[in-house]
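JOB MANIFEST
job_type = single_chain_structure
chain_count = 1
residues = 200
[input]
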Amino acid sequence: MAVKPEHGVRWRRLAKFHRDALHGYERRLSAIGGELKRIRECVGLSQRAVEEAEALVKRYFDLVASFPPEVVAVAVLWTAAKAAGAPRPLEDFLKCSKAEERRVRKVAWRLKEVVKLGRRPIEDYVKTLAARVNLPAPVAKAAVDILERNRRLLFGKNPWVWAAAALWLASLKRLGLLKALAEAAGTTPTSIRNAANRLK
């Protein structure tokens, strides 16, 4: 059966969107990778720490992608050095970068929270956020049900964003609630919206 013209246009647009998204992902990884290499050589880190840093970037890309490459590079190298058993003062990394200390600490804190607490049940994040924004138990339960149906989407992602997205959906997308959830989750309304659009 012949494909209707409008369907062909839709498929071409979808293909272009995926190509652009892939190229954007690769460009960000390349920029972050360049910073990782430069800072690693400046600070004098072990190869093990660098490999750990690269793994962190790939696994938690959604969490760090909105920050400048230099901020991400310092944050993951600082975090990876600790994980590799060779901690270094943050100042050592900042001397080799233009990254702002406050933003580096913010990214590092998020990474530490997700890496160390990532094994916590997603229900814990939902309950914590629901309590922070005063949502009732039935809404939290509905949000957990939404996340249970979407387990495959959650691997390696920021659990706070997905918990907030599920709560927003369970609350029928109340606009006033979106900002409150973003503040409580330490993220942005746009991130929550994007996650909510992927939840079934």
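[summary]
Residues 6 and 12 are 10 Å apart (CA to CA).
The radius of gyration is 19 Å.
exit_status = 0
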